[in-house]
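Usage

Read records sequentially. Each one opens with the input sequence:
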Amino acid sequence: MKTRCTIPMWVAKAGYIVMSLVFCAAGALFIVKPEFSATAISRTLGAAMIVFGIVKLVGYFSKDLFRLAFQYDLGFGLLLIALGILVLAKPAGALDFIFAALGIAILTDGLFKVQIAVDAKRFGIPSWWLTLALAIVTGLVGLALVFRPWDSVQLLTALLGAALLAEGVLNLCVAVSTVKIVAHQRPDVIEV
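and closes with the structure output:
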C-alpha cells in the first residue's frame, strides 16, 4: 500500500510553531509597550488571525498520526479568518471588538485544548498535564479579556498581551507534544 504524503502535516506543524512564536512575541511586546495605537494593534492582530486561520485549515485537512491538535481547526480556522477580515476592515474602531472577540476565541481555544489534553492522556502522551495546565491558564486569561476588568486601554492592552502570550505558549506545547508525523504512515482504510 502506498504511504501518505506528509508535506501538509509538516506545513501545519511548522505553521503552528511559527504562529505560536509570533503570538508569544506580540504578547510580550503588548505587555512591555501597552501604549501601541489601536490601529497598529488591529492591523497586526487582524493579519495574524488570518494567517493562523489558514494554518489551522491546513492542519485540519492534514492527517497527522494522533489527530489531536487539529481536530477542531476547521471551524476555528474559519472563525479566525473571519475575525481577522473584520478587524482589518475597521482597524481604528475595532479595539473594543478585538478585546471581546479575541477573549472569546482564546477562552474557546483553551476549552478545546482541555479536551485535547484529556484525549492526549488517553493516548499515553506524557506531557498531557502541561497542555491541561496551560489550557486552563489560557482560558482564564481569555475570560478576563472578555470581562475587561479595567477601563485603562494600556492595562487592557497588557492583558491582551498576556492572553496572546498564553495562547502562543499553549499552541506551541500542543504542536510539539501531540502532532506526530510518521514518514511511513498509510492512508486511512475502512476495514470490512
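Summary fields computed downstream for this record:
- The mean pLDDT is 84.
- Helices lie at 7-32, 38-61, 73-89, 95-123, 128-147, 153-178.
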